[in-house]
Amino acid sequence: MADEEEEADGWGSDFEDENIGGEDDDDSSWKVRRATAKLIDAIFSSRPDMLRDLYHRYGALLSSRFKERDINVKCSILETFHTILKSAIHSENN
Predict the structure, then answer these.
(1) Looking at the whole model, is its pTM more than 0.70?
(2) How many angstroms separate the CA atoms of 60 and 73, rounded?
(3) Do residues 37 and 62 lie in contact, with contact meaning Cβ atoms separated by under 8 Å?
(4) DSSP class per residue in the chain
(5) How many domains is the chain partitioned into structurally?
(6) Cβ-contact 45, 58 below 8 angstroms
(7) Which domain holds residue 22?
(8) What is the pLDDT of residues 5-28, one digit of tens each?
């Protein structure tokens, strides 16, 4: 019984050490994905006159990211689609 506990303790600490490295990798990648969504949002905000062209260029890319696992990135993507919708409504009213 003592051997099983020692093995379990050793496996647990090894597993935790490996997990720490993986979290660092994921931490950076979600920041990059979120920054990309914010950049696309800024492009749509600054160029409403190019809405159609920009949507053809970035719309499919953004919609493919709705499956995003990180909530921060998902929120940024939804905010970008909100900007697109506001731009579309504004351009139809003008």
Answers:
(1) no
(2) 16
(3) yes
(4) -HHHHHHHHHHHHHHHHHHHHHHHHHHHHHHHHHHHHHHHHHHHHH-GGGHHHHHHHHHHHHHHGGG-S-HHHHHHHHHHHHHHHHHHHHHHH-
(5) 1
(6) no
(7) 2-93
(8) 555 444 444 444 444 444 555 568
